[in-house]
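Box 4.2: Ligand-aware structure prediction
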Amino acid sequence: MTATIIDGKAFAARVRGQVAEHVSRLAEENGIQPGLAVVLVGADPASEVYVKSKGKMTVEVGMHSVEHRLADDTAEGDLLALIATLNADPKIHGILVQLPLPAHLNSELVINSIDPAKDVDGFHISNVGLLGTGQKSMVPCTPLGCLMMLRDHHGDLSGMNAVVVGRSNIVGKPMAQLLLGDSCTVTIAHSRTKDLKAVCQGADILVAAVGRAEMITGDYVKPGATVIDVGINRIERDGKKKLVGDAEFASCAAVAGAITPVPGGVGPMTIACLLANTLTACCRANGLAEPQGLTV
Ligand SMILES: NC(=O)C1=CN([C@@H]2O[C@H](COP(=O)(O)OP(=O)(O)OC[C@H]3O[C@@H](n4cnc5c(N)ncnc54)[C@H](OP(=O)(O)O)[C@@H]3O)[C@@H](O)[C@H]2O)C=CC1
Ligand SMILES: Nc1nc(=O)c2c([nH]1)NC[C@@H]1CN(c3ccc(C(=O)N[C@@H](CCC(=O)O)C(=O)O)cc3)C=[N+]21
């Protein structure tokens, strides 16, 4: 079998197009412009790339974009003061603090200081709790993008066996919640899972969010399964720098029914969902109807 390649890049462009339409309607009918603030502490080169591309796409869909770049040794109090200012700023509807933060900063404290209504990453404990109890929330962008692609490819996901490899708060756990919300039978695997390969072989939907380059190989994949590769790993091969996922693309694609590539899969959908969440937050803040189909 040769897998269908799920084109996240094209899907993300469609989502951004829908966001842009809503944004222009908001401007015409309500005189409102959604605004997103991205906060980057320190100068991690990979983070720089995402922050730049987020800023560019935010402007492309017609939103107000603000970037705050803070020094590596920024005091926690200064970061919290910036967040308080952004929380109170009526032009800002979404706040994203790029993770990971430098080690001297308490990430939990920082994230939980963001107004939950502006928490477009969906990482605030209030949003985590709302998602876990099936209530309206801000849904983390990466899992939301994965769910959109899965729904688009399969339609109804109910009854499917889903295995999520990885249990981080930003990807694995919220991904599992969303799949459960769509009535999948969900298994969360991690570094202590016994016989990971056998667990993965039972998956109709296999989500790889491990942070280990090409760890999931074709022999982990049930024939015909859908593989969602969340991993972003920069490696060097044959003297060239390369971006690869947590799944080994060639061997997985030979067995799977469908697979997301890296680059061009989950990554672009993450940014598109960030813009969708900012739009949703703006509509909620102004008591306006939310766009359909851009959140769960
Ligand atoms: N495309 C996108 O938009 C995004 C991509 N990413 C990428 O997704 C990947 C995961 O990110 P993130 O969740 O933040 O990573 P973390 O490092 O926070 O979590 C990795 C998870 O994988 C598990 N794990 C590690 N090694 C193994 C192993 N050998 N077998 C089974 N499980 C293992 C860990 O288990 P344990 O808990 O037991 O330690 C942990 O739960 C990374 O490649 C990251 O770059 C992340 C965010 C967005
Ligand atoms: N608070 C917070 N929220 C995040 O959502 C967040 C974060 N911190 N920290 C880092 C991770 C990583 N992440 C990516 C987003 C887009 C691509 C992306 O667009 N990738 C392109 C390739 C880009 C390239 O070439 O580097 C692709 O896969 O096609 C990748 C990774 C969001 N993250």
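In the box above, the bound molecule is NDP. The CA atoms of residues 112 and 124 lie 5 Å apart.
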